[in-house]
Amino acid sequence: MAEEQKPFDIEELKKELADIKSELMRKELEEIKHEKMRQELEELKAEQAQKHEPQRYSPLPRLSIITALMAVLTLVMAGYMLGTLFTYNLAGDIDKYIASYSCPISGSMVVAIVSVVLIFIGLGFVTMAKR
């Protein structure tokens, strides 16, 4: 009886081995398919990221009411200082104030420098407002 069962068991074992091999091959093929699909998905995502990636450029200042108002205000202040306050002896008052600190600059130079700085700031605001 033992001899009769051996061939039957061998055939059954061969079938089981073939089943196991086919199952392992199927699993390996599925893993390969999943890996391939994962790679394709990554490639598609990379392509979409390149398409949707915004172009990098420096933002230009936009025309705003605040910028235009600041430009007008600084230019008006500079003109007021040069035109009106200079004739009201602002330079003399600044001269007296500076004399107490013994600085080597006169009041008229201070008024002129502040006015020129305000003019350049105003022109900078005008340039920003134009863009």
Rg is 43 Å
Number of domains: 2
Q: What is the general shape?
A: rod-shaped
Helix/strand structural class: mainly alpha
What is the makeup of the main sheet? none
**How many beta-strand elements?**
0
Mean pLDDT across the residues is 79
* Residue share in helix: over 70%
Q: Give unreliable regions as ranges.
A: none
SSE ordering: HHHH
In whole angstroms, the N-to-C terminal distance is: 102 Å
Q: How many distinct helices?
A: 4
Strand content: under 5%
Transmembrane segments: 65-88, 108-129
Keywords: Coiled coil, Membrane, Transmembrane, Transmembrane helix
Coiled coil: 10-49
Task: Explain this structure.
The N and C termini lie far apart (102 Å). The chain folds into 2 domains: 13-52; 65-130, no CATH class. The longest helix is centred in the first third of the chain and has 51 residues, at 2-52. It has helices at residues 2-52, 65-85, 90-99, 107-130. The chain is rod-shaped and about 125 Å long. 81% of the residues lie in helices and 0% in strands. Helix 2 (65-85) runs antiparallel to helix 4 and helix 3 packs across helix 4 (107-130). The mean pLDDT is 79. With 131 residues, the chain is mostly helical. The chain crosses the membrane at residues 65-88, 108-129. Residues 10-49 form a coiled coil.
Short description:
This protein has 131 residues and is mainly alpha-helical.
Set down the secondary structure blueprint.
Blueprint: H1 2-52, H2 65-85, H3 90-99, H4 107-130
Helix pairs in contact: 2-4, 3-4
What attributes does this structure have?
131 residues, mainly alpha, 2 domains, 81% helix
